[in-house]
């Protein structure tokens, strides 16, 4: 599902099942979750050998798309 899309699942679920959920809360929850997800993803990638200098290798982007490498 990914870092960016996964952060919107909880606000969308609240929108469907909780009548008091408002648009500001849902938007800020989705955007805030996406930012925190990206920060976590980059922080973990920076701990591997080579840090963010080897960003493509450390994040595993090409593990699914080996033809692109």
Describe this protein's structure.
Helix content is 61%, strand content 0%. The chain has helices spanning 3-6, 9-17, 23-46, 55-59. Helix 2 (9-17) packs antiparallel against helix 3. The longest helix is centred in the middle third of the chain and has 24 residues, at 23-46. The chain is elongated, with a radius of gyration of 16 Å. The protein starts with a helix and ends in a 10-residue tail after the last helix. The mean pLDDT is 79.
Spell the H/E element sequence: HHHH
The oligomeric state is: single chain
Helix content: 55-70%
Q: Describe the largest sheet.
A: none
Give the low-pLDDT segments: none
What's the count of strands? 0
Instruction: Please indicate the percent range of residues in DSSP E strands (runs of 2 or more).
Output: under 5%
- Give me the number of helical elements: 4
Mean pLDDT over all positions = 79
What would the principal axes of the Cα set say about the shape? elongated
| Cα separation of the termini | 22 Å
Radius of gyration in whole Å, from Cα? 16 Å
Total number of domains: 1
Structural class: mainly alpha
